[in-house]
Amino acid sequence: MKLTDTIYIAGHRGLAGSAIWRHFEKAGYTNLVGLRSDELDLTDRQATMSRIREVSPEVVIDAAAKVGGIHANNTYPADFLSQNLQIQVNLMDAAHAAGVDRLLFLGSSCIYPKFAPQPIPESALLTGPLEETNDAYGIAKISGILQVQAMRRQHGHRWISAMPTNLYGPNDNYHPENSHVLAALIRKFHEAKTEGADTVTIWGSGRPLREFLHVDDLASAVEFLLLNYDDPQTINIGSGHEVSIQQLAHTIAEVVGFRGDLVNDETKPDGTPRKMLDSSRLHSLGWTTAWSLREGIADAYEWFLANESSVRSV
Ligand SMILES: NC(=O)c1ccc[n+]([C@@H]2O[C@H](COP(=O)([O-])OP(=O)(O)OC[C@H]3O[C@@H](n4cnc5c(N)ncnc54)[C@H](OP(=O)(O)O)[C@@H]3O)[C@@H](O)[C@H]2O)c1
Question: Given Cys at both, which of 78, 183, 273, 303 links 170, Cβ 3.0 to 4.6 Å?
Fold first, then answer.
């Protein structure tokens, strides 16, 4: 991948895609292409085939997807399956037809079985049933990994796939129901502080352990992989650090400046006790994170404050 290559970043306005755009721009890549979904709907096969041929990129980064929290995934599984399959099949077929040499497909940790060993190694893929609440999304993403592998085998493309852990940072979704836990807690503590509330309630015991990655670290990993990784096996992108939900809540409360008490509502479910990716393959190639969780949360909160009136609400 060269600085002058035409690089099409699909989903360049989303959480992951916008960070990748910022990172590549800062790193000196001069021919970035981004198309909003209202300019190119990737579920429209004909439009995708002809537009990608026109753009004729050397590199494609697929950060476009229909994404949502547990509630949305559980309520609209048919939409998540159908739209994600269409987006990635159309984009990869169009990239093949346009002779794209390097492509990176982004998935997520929900591709791994519900009872995978922790931390989850890449070898856990397809070794057991998925978590039911987002199995439709997970199956679509697994198909994407297999499509990358099939394209490599059949056509010799140097395409790769990568599976990031939980992401957060600028452009995150702060919707009360559709957001992920870190963004949801930032919003909750901010509102409690603004309203002068004495307590904030945390769902469950606070004991489950989770891993988080600032999106700028994801973006640097994406560049690193496109420069250094060429293997059919998917590769995990994680920070290698885990934190309990309780520790996370305390850190967010401190960053936001909420001085009240945290109360645990133990009638609410905890979810899986531990979920963390084994990212030792990536780390052994020489890539490391730049952001600590605390600094990352401070950055995310700064962005939230600057964009409070326009944060995503879908
Ligand atoms: N968020 C996380 O914690 C996380 C963790 C691991 C992996 N990932 C993966 O990272 C990828 C991106 O996720 P994200 O969190 O960045 O999602 P996001 O913020 O919702 O962004 C998704 C982007 O996809 C674009 N898109 C959706 N449908 C499209 C369509 N039909 N045609 C063209 N573009 C379309 C949207 O474009 P417009 O804005 O132009 O409509 C949007 O910018 C996904 O594959 C996801 O699985 C995310």
Answer: 303
Q: What is the CA radius of gyration of the chain?
A: 19
* Tally of domains within the chain: 2
263 in Cβ contact with 200 (< 8 Å): yes
- Cα 240 to Cα 238: distance, rounded to the nearest angstrom: 6
Q: Is the pLDDT of residue 257 over 70?
A: yes
20 lines ligand 1 (CB under 6 A): no
CA of 63 to the centre of ligand 1 (A): 6
Residues 99-154: tens digit of each pLDDT? 999 999 999 999 999 999 999 999 999 999 999 988 999 999 999 999 999 999 99
Protein residue closest via CA to atom 21 of ligand 1: 14
Looking at the annotation, which residues are catalytic?
A: 137
Q: What is the pLDDT of residues 150-170, one digit of tens each?
A: 999 999 999 999 999 999 999
The percent of residues in the chain predicted with pLDDT above 90, rounded, is: 89
Q: Give residue 15's domain range.
A: 6-167+212-237
Q: Is the CB of 293 under 6 A from ligand 1?
A: no
Task: Give the DSSP H or E segment for 19.
Answer: helix 15-26
Query: Does 263 have pLDDT greater than 70?
Result: yes
Mean pLDDT of the chain: 95
Q: Do 250 and 199 share a structural domain?
A: yes
Based on the fold, state whether residues 265 and 298 are members of the same structural domain: yes
The answer on pLDDT for 313 being more than 70 is no
Ligand 1 pocket test, candidate residues 8, 9, 15, 171, most atoms within 8 A of CB: 15
Contacts of 284 (CB under 8 A, 6+ apart): none
Q: Residue 314 pLDDT > 60, yes or no? A: no
AA letter at 228: N
Residues 141 and 17 in one domain: yes
Mutate to test the pocket of ligand 1, among 23, 41, 44, 108 (most ligand atoms within 8 A of CB): 108
Q: Which residues contact 221 (CB under 8 A, 6 or more apart)?
A: 162, 164, 237, 282, 287
Ligand 1 within 6 A of 77 CB? no
Structural domain contains residue 278 = no
